[in-house]
Amino acid sequence: MFGINISKKIFIITLLIFAVLITSFALTYNMQLSNFLTLEEADTLNDVERLQNAIYTQQGYLDNMVQDWACWDDTYRFIEDRNQEYINVNLQNETLAGVKVNIMLFINETGSLVYAKSINFSTVEEKPVPEELLKLVESGQLSIKSEDDVIRGYVLLDEAPMFISCHPILTTKYEGPVKGTLVFGKYFDDDVLSSEENTDSSISILRVDEDLPPDFQGKFQQFTEAPDSTIVEPLSKEVIAGYFGLMDISGKSAVIIRTDFPRILYLNNENTLNYMYFFLLLTGLVTGVGVKFALDNFFVSRLIDIDNFVTKVRSEKDLSRRLPLEGNDELYRLSREINGMLSEIELAEQELKSQEREKKVLLDSLNELAIFVDPDFKIIWANKAALEHMKIDLEKAKGMCVKTTPDINGSLFGHMQLEKIFNSGNKESGEFSLENGTYWFVQAIPVTDDSGKIIGILGTFRDITERKAIEKLLQEKQVAEIANRTKSEFLANMSHELRTPLNSIIGFSDLLCDQIYGKLNEKQLKYTNNISKSGKHLLNLINDILDLSKVEAGKMELDYREFELADRLNSVKSLLSPIAARKNIKIEINVNKDLTTICADEARFVQIMYNLVDNAIKFSFENNPVRIEARRKGEFLETTVTDIGIGIKPEDQHKLFQPFSQVAAFSSKKFQGTGLGLSLVKQIVNLHGGYVWFRSIPGEGSTFAFAIPINGNKKD
């Protein structure tokens, strides 16, 4: 926080305090919400318990009803004689509807069904007994053998779950033996759940033998393990649900009931809590803003004014400014001391300026490096150029000994014998070269006072490196031109001297080969043929050297004329086809239809193509074609020669087009050559105003190409 101003620091501290308050409020808020959740869960459990009590009350009513009917002498006799009077009097539809029983089943002691009746007590109409109940009767699951035994629970019928209560049939005095079993059943529907306690809730009933929604599936497992348990959990921000199960006649879960209640208690408490904590946070925020405003207004703003004032004085270097004085506290005393310090600094600065003004004008008016030293060789003054050369400012340079000053000791002043100058009083000057390659003109002038005493030496230094470099370049250029001219003349003379005897050797050897002067045996003919070939090879080499010398000497002139492009390419093909045939190489030519004639030096064009195609044949693999392609590219003719051969390694490619230079793969005895062909190609193409290029992949082949103006010297 060292780079932050006080106002921001106070703001950050206020924010930290506010953050601590928010954290405390958040923890307290969460604790209160947790308490509200606990209260809400307890309240929901009470509501679920009321619903359970309503269901259990109706189940108890059915239990009492079946017990009253089962422990009745008339029922006891009816199982034995099945008299019609009992049915007519007691088993009418209206009777069952009055007691709100959907089904009555009379089963004798052997488990056989004596009588069954099923009605819809809402419509008082008789309906068939569900097949599922009849199967339970046949299986004996609803039969009671003991006087103290009862069967009660839910049966999952296709129509709806049904609560059944089974009681042994006894006499009115509850005496046996047991004559059979009386079964009362009532469908579990909305009427069962309708009561005053449940008007503010939504109830869902799901059977366990059907697909359960996701929120019921987990509850089914819990009710399987603990059938009498009750589960409460929130469904959403507005609704909380209670789950409980109802068991079948075997004691397993048969029906799961979910009752939904609005979260009035939780939401009201949460809103109250929100309002309370919002008020507390707002109070904290207002308090923090008020405290910061008070600190800024009475303390920080005055410090900022002082800081801005000092910064402005330092940047503008205006020492005449003064801080306004107000109050009578520590900040007032600080302002007063700053004003006093500024007054003292202003006086001292005025004195220094008056002393340095003349020196600065004198030193900075010089273009050269200028350094004035006293008899102890310490720097008194230095101009701007010297300070920049030494990479220091004037204040740091003052008092430094020139023998330890960077870029001066041992280089410039080191060449001047200062002690001798102080003793003799004579001016010294000279040119010196330094280890870094720079050249300087150094001059040392003694400075005397009115009495003639030497009080110092003014040294001036001028960098003459550029002038020396120009002089050296001119000398080197003259030497190079003389050497190049001598070399070209020597090569031209030597080539001329060699060509005359070579022509004689070639001529006479050809006559001998033709056997003009008599028959030669096989060995003589072979040797004579070798003399002719070697002479012609040497003559071509000399011609190449002569051409290269002419180009370098600027004496080669081009003979521009129009000629048929395809004819010249075919003539090159004809010349080199015998050489290509030795490696079973086919020369293919492809010329664009829009190219017919070009204007160039015909002989030199043929020389270019001969060198490129000869090289392509020389370095191609056997049984592969050499392709020559010519196309128009703007105002230029672009010609490429492509081979499938050994290619050129990347590290050797820089040697191409250099005279007398061959890459490693070409310098073997297998590929003979002088290294002048590509150099001549480049020089001749450049004379035509064109350019050359190539691309090569080792082991795959190379493409050499050049471009020259189609219209030659007539393009203007």
From TrEMBL:
<dbReference type="InterPro" id="IPR035965">
    <property type="entry name" value="PAS-like_dom_sf"/>
</dbReference>
<dbReference type="InterPro" id="IPR000014">
    <property type="entry name" value="PAS"/>
</dbReference>
<keyword id="KW-0067">ATP-binding</keyword>
<dbReference type="GO" id="GO:0005524">
    <property type="term" value="F:ATP binding"/>
</dbReference>
<feature type="domain" description="HAMP">
    <location>
        <begin position="297"/>
        <end position="350"/>
    </location>
</feature>
<feature type="domain" description="Histidine kinase">
    <location>
        <begin position="493"/>
        <end position="712"/>
    </location>
</feature>
<dbReference type="InterPro" id="IPR003661">
    <property type="entry name" value="HisK_dim/P_dom"/>
</dbReference>
<dbReference type="InterPro" id="IPR036097">
    <property type="entry name" value="HisK_dim/P_sf"/>
</dbReference>
<keyword id="KW-0597">Phosphoprotein</keyword>
<dbReference type="InterPro" id="IPR007892">
    <property type="entry name" value="CHASE4"/>
</dbReference>
<keyword id="KW-0472">Membrane</keyword>
<keyword id="KW-0808">Transferase</keyword>
<protein>
    <recommendedName>
        <fullName>histidine kinase</fullName>
        <ecNumber>2.7.13.3</ecNumber>
    </recommendedName>
</protein>
<dbReference type="InterPro" id="IPR013656">
    <property type="entry name" value="PAS_4"/>
</dbReference>
<feature type="coiled-coil region">
    <location>
        <begin position="331"/>
        <end position="365"/>
    </location>
</feature>
<feature type="transmembrane region" description="Helical">
    <location>
        <begin position="275"/>
        <end position="295"/>
    </location>
</feature>
<dbReference type="InterPro" id="IPR036890">
    <property type="entry name" value="HATPase_C_sf"/>
</dbReference>
<keyword id="KW-0812">Transmembrane</keyword>
<dbReference type="Pfam" id="PF02518">
    <property type="entry name" value="HATPase_c"/>
</dbReference>
<keyword id="KW-1003">Cell membrane</keyword>
<dbReference type="GO" id="GO:0009927">
    <property type="term" value="F:histidine phosphotransfer kinase activity"/>
</dbReference>
<dbReference type="Pfam" id="PF08448">
    <property type="entry name" value="PAS_4"/>
</dbReference>
<dbReference type="InterPro" id="IPR003594">
    <property type="entry name" value="HATPase_dom"/>
</dbReference>
<dbReference type="InterPro" id="IPR005467">
    <property type="entry name" value="His_kinase_dom"/>
</dbReference>
<keyword id="KW-0902">Two-component regulatory system</keyword>
<dbReference type="InterPro" id="IPR004358">
    <property type="entry name" value="Sig_transdc_His_kin-like_C"/>
</dbReference>
<feature type="domain" description="PAC">
    <location>
        <begin position="425"/>
        <end position="476"/>
    </location>
</feature>
<dbReference type="GO" id="GO:0005886">
    <property type="term" value="C:plasma membrane"/>
</dbReference>
<dbReference type="GO" id="GO:0000155">
    <property type="term" value="F:phosphorelay sensor kinase activity"/>
</dbReference>
<keyword id="KW-1133">Transmembrane helix</keyword>
<dbReference type="Pfam" id="PF05228">
    <property type="entry name" value="CHASE4"/>
</dbReference>
<dbReference type="Pfam" id="PF00512">
    <property type="entry name" value="HisKA"/>
</dbReference>
<keyword id="KW-0547">Nucleotide-binding</keyword>
<dbReference type="InterPro" id="IPR003660">
    <property type="entry name" value="HAMP_dom"/>
</dbReference>
<keyword id="KW-0418">Kinase</keyword>
<dbReference type="InterPro" id="IPR000700">
    <property type="entry name" value="PAS-assoc_C"/>
</dbReference>
<keyword id="KW-0175">Coiled coil</keyword>
